[in-house]
Amino acid sequence: MFLITGGGSGIGRALAKALAGKNKKVLIIGRRANALAETAALSPLISYLQADVSTQEGRERISHHLAQTQSLEGLINNAGLIEPIAPLAEVSESACQKIWATNLNAPLFLTQILLKKLTKGRILNIGSGAAYFPIEGMAAYCFTKAALSMLTRCWLLENPKLAIASVMPGIIDTNMQKIARNAELLGEEKRDFYKSLHQKGRLVSTAAVAEFLSWLLLDIDAAEFSSQEWDIYDKSHHQSWLKSPHQIPDWE
Ligand SMILES: NC(=O)c1ccc[n+]([C@@H]2O[C@H](COP(=O)([O-])OP(=O)(O)OC[C@H]3O[C@@H](n4cnc5c(N)ncnc54)[C@H](OP(=O)(O)O)[C@@H]3O)[C@@H](O)[C@H]2O)c1
To answer: For residue 5, how far is its CA from the centre of ligand 1 (angstroms)?
Structure first.
């Protein structure tokens, strides 16, 4: 079984559908029961649990739910927030605590609590190119994703046999992008850039991302899986998984 956090929408939903399409059982997690139920309706192999991964209580709920499950084939730490979108001079401490709890604490402590079930499985942290490019007005997202990338490297240093990797999945047509292109406090240049990608149809589709992630989770060997931080725009691996009708539009 694969466990996907944030499976009620966006990348998480598309990945759940893709894995179920390859005959894999998937448990999806999220806060909105109706969104989870919509994803679960896509396949009898998808089940769901309502839990908030940013809280210890939510993570314990997941652990309790999996008490009889000896091992997991994969944990995909995908749940994430993009907000607060605000300049550092104005950003609130409580909003920063929330994004840290979701984008960093959740992948750290959910992995920790499920570690014994993952000795033969794969852990995939959904990172972002924003870890490497400061974005005006989106500092909290940038620094939490930078921390997530380092978290992955530290897990691997302390547990060299663990199959764990981070991935930069591209600029994708999900609700998170909609929030970004409509955010009043995002730097104007970036907001216009996101708007133009949307208008020109150059956002990556969630189905294409799901193909890429499925390839990472199912098709390559464990050593290769952990060998790098994966980037969907890196053309060197496209021939291994990218097939029509999917495409990865250039954003330059
Ligand atoms: N879209 C992009 O361009 C892009 C680019 C790079 C990286 N990413 C990353 O991709 C991942 C998925 O994002 P997306 O683009 O697919 O956007 P999305 O549709 O907004 O997905 C985020 C998901 O996370 C869930 N979530 C948020 N907080 C949660 C919590 N505390 N507990 C449980 N679930 C929670 C949300 O469900 P509930 O609200 O129901 O809890 C939602 O289903 C994120 O980590 C994001 O940073 C996205």
So the answer is: 8
